[in-house]
């Protein structure tokens, strides 16, 4: 990634101009802006600084207003980060893979201790922001109903699939799948379902999106789901019986589970 590419992202919509100076008062010191932009984009601060100086000189030569302190604010930072994210999605799609790391010891997570044993309790906030009164299904992993969207709530309260052994919301950040956007991604639900032979089991991981069509998903969300598909396919190659599926509001969880069992 070179300075010229960064300059292209600065063009047009980075320069705030007088029309938005009074709208955004969260201004940064220049050094703070560079550090935050570098942290969010994974581009060295010196490269961003070089690109900004080149862009400012370009404005000056064209007889336009050059960059000033008012231009380094929350809005311009978000625009720059969005441009970089779009570039990553466009240029890295299909050009990544996940490799098994050897020699790593089991680490403590939200669900288990470092020795692998499960924890007895978990913070409700890790599961969901909406808490509903009532008793969940006997095969639900937790004793409280908590979720983040109506679709998740419906999935938790749906217990009409006999093949389900146990299921539950995946706590936030307990699974951290690296993605091409530079962020990590954690799916929503985990299911253990019994296959038709009644002996073997399948681990089903589901990402729920409370939208009717895939076209309603944002580009970043779509790319994170693609990364998860690659990640879990790698686990399948390692012999782990796991399947990853996405759920839209137009598809019942029961259908997704039944389809996963006949694959």
Search tags:
alpha+beta, 7 helices, 263 residues, 14% strand, 4-stranded mixed β-sheet
Write the SSE topology:
Layout lengths: L2 H8 L19 H12 L3 H17 L12 H19 L37 E3 L12 E3 L2 H8 L6 E6 L7 E2 L5 E2 L3 E6 L6 E9 L9 H19 L4 E7 L4 H9 L2
Parallel strand pairs: 7-8
Antiparallel strand pairs: 1-2, 3-6, 4-5, 6-7
If you had to describe this structure to a student in words, what would you say it looks like?
The protein has 263 residues and is of the alpha+beta class. The chain has two domains: 3-92, no CATH class; 124-261, no CATH class. 35% of the residues lie in helices and 14% in strands. It has seven helices and eight strands; from the N terminus they run H-H-H-H-E-E-H-E-E-E-E-E-H-E-H. The protein is elongated. It starts with a helix and ends with a helix.
């Amino acid at each position: 990634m070179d300075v010229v590419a960064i300059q292209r992202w600065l063009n047009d919509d980075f320069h705030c101009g007088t029309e938005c100076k009074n709208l955004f008062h969260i201004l940064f010191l220049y050094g703070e802006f560079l550090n935050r932009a570098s942290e969010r984009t994974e581009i060295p601060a010196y490269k961003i600084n070089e690109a900004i100086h080149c862009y400012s000189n370009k404005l000056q030569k064209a007889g336009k207003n050059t960059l000033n302190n008012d231009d380094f604010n929350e809005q311009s930072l978000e625009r720059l980060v969005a441009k970089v994210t779009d570039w990553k999605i466009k240029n890295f799609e299909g050009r990544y893979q996940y490799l098994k790391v050897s020699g790593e010891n089991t680490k403590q997570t939200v669900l288990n201790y470092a020795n692998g044993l499960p924890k007895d309790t978990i913070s409700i906030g890790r599961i969901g922001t909406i808490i509903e009164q009532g008793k969940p299904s006997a095969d639900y992993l937790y004793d409280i109903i908590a979720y983040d969207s109506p679709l998740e709530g419906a999935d938790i309260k749906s217990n009409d699939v006999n093949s389900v052994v146990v299921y539950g919301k995946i706590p936030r950040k307990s699974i951290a799948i690296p993605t091409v956007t530079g962020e990590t991604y954690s799916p929503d639900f985990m299911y253990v379902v019994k296959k038709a032979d009644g002996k073997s089991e399948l681990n089903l991981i589901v990402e729920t999106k409370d939208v009717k069509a895939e076209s309603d998903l944002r580009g970043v969300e779509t790319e994170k789901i693609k990364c998860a598909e690659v990640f879990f396919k790698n686990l399948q190659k390692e012999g782990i019986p796991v399947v990853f599926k996405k759920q839209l509001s137009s598809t019942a969880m029961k259908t997704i589970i039944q389809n996963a069992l006949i694959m």
